[in-house]
């Protein structure tokens, strides 16, 4: 049994790399307290503390620990320069019929689509592969696909803002280092050399990419190549996602994730976040070198407006300074800001209630993306 991605040398040459905040979230929820990486287990603990019971139950129902399939609408194909707010907007705007279709694929008792059934050896094998619907998902699904998408988008955006935000610059640094390493190898030895490193269940024949799976199918729309997506929370073999008409994705574990566990997460970052807010703490710790609003936006994944707003607060608090060179304005930490960012745990930190609350990020406004997935995407 195998998935076959029709891919000639010209299409291979268009293959590229991308990062995805949504896929990082998926890894945290997929493995939960059993994740082999300490940083991901810590993030899941924080997730349980910050999400409402309803939000947590819905995300865990959509991202099960004991099944290989996760609905595609939770992890849209990454776009250059996209923030988590943009991703949440795309998730929320998923057409209801698309959400319903993706739930049909893996939920027992829902509609059976003939072309999905045809991917499996028999109807009995397909029904064994499907899973019962969890209560939290059943409750939301009764209200329709739009409700499921909106609730999931809100929960994922909240998780990112409250849990991953302080760590996002480091996550991106690790992913970018991995991408740089593999891109160099791809340029020197070809894309097949990168595949050899990622796992033994894939091979490129020169005309197609063959991935061993528990079902069979053919992808004939990979004209723009493959999208390689490193993630610091991924565990196990490479995941494969195919969503017509977008480039298929190969999701794999990034190198260097051990550095996320080098520093206790409950000391400086937590104390600093309690003192000035998680968003401003992340910006302050990111400013090891001077950076413009646009550069900070790219590093953190927040919009320019969000970064500018919080930089203004840090500027008024004299924790950062700004300098203009030509048309570019760059921000630097002041002596006080550096001392605060590099200090040990703030034992005498003022309670967050005595300080201005961290502003919520701007409301997503990206238009809907009308994807029509037609293959089970995870195994």
Automatic annotation (TrEMBL):
SUPFAM superfamilies: Winged helix' DNA-binding domain (SSF46785). Pfam families: HTH_20. Keywords: DNA-binding, Transcription, Transcription regulation. It comes from Streptomyces xanthii. GO terms for molecular function: DNA binding; DNA-binding transcription factor activity. Residues 270-342 form the HTH arsR-type domain. Residues 339-379 are annotated as: Disordered. This is Helix-turn-helix transcriptional regulator. InterPro entries: ArsR-like_HTH (IPR011991), HTH_ArsR_DNA-bd_dom (IPR001845), Metal_resp_trans_reg (IPR051011), WH-like_DNA-bd_sf (IPR036388), WH_DNA-bd_sf (IPR036390). Residues 356-368 have a biased composition (Low complexity). Gene3D superfamilies: Winged helix-like DNA-binding domain superfamily/Winged helix DNA-binding domain. Signal peptide: none annotated.
